[in-house]
Amino acid sequence: MNTAANIEDPSRSSDLAFSSDENRWQTVVDRDPRADGAFFFAVRTTGVFCRPSCASRRENVEFFDDTDAAAAGYRPCKRCQPTSLPRELAIVERVCKVLDADPQQRMTLAQLGEAVHVSPFHLQQLFSRIVGVSPRQYQAAQRAGVPMRSNVAAT
Ligand SMILES: [Zn+2]
After folding, report:
1. How far away, in angstroms, is 8 Cα from ligand 1 center?
2. What is the CATH number of domain 10-76?
3. Which top CATH class is 86-153?
4. What would the pLDDT profile of 1-18 be if each residue is shown by its tens digit?
5. In which residue ranges of the chain is pLDDT below 70?
6. Considering the entire predicted model, what is its pTM?
7. CB-neighbour burial class of residue 5 (10 A; exposed 0-12, middle 13-18, buried 19+)
């Protein structure tokens, strides 16, 4: 019974997890859904870009941190719809929920990332992209009594 090493630890996703192309490639090979939104891979031969968990072919790939893949001329995959952001939205919703729960409490990016199992760096990017402000700005606005929730709900 030597299976302990194979058990996935959901808290393992960290800053380092997707920081190098080697890690990203491994993640893509594993089709790890936790990487969805953290980066995208584009297939040079087909001109399509995908979420890491997509079932489509993965060879001759290039990695993108964001949907910049579209700017680079790649088309979003029809299967995994990398530009539709359902999972990213869900993550941001969870972050908002955490922040809304106690507006007076100052949460660091690290704490928030921990709460939703996303790296602080990625969380910052994601949150800013979807909500339009950083988590810090969001919290500041909350404390100032400016509701920002509507941005997310309207998406
Ligand atoms: Zn795809």
Report:
1. 24
2. 3.40.10.10
3. mainly alpha
4. 444 444 444 444 444 568
5. 1-17, 67, 85-86, 147-155
6. 0.52
7. exposed
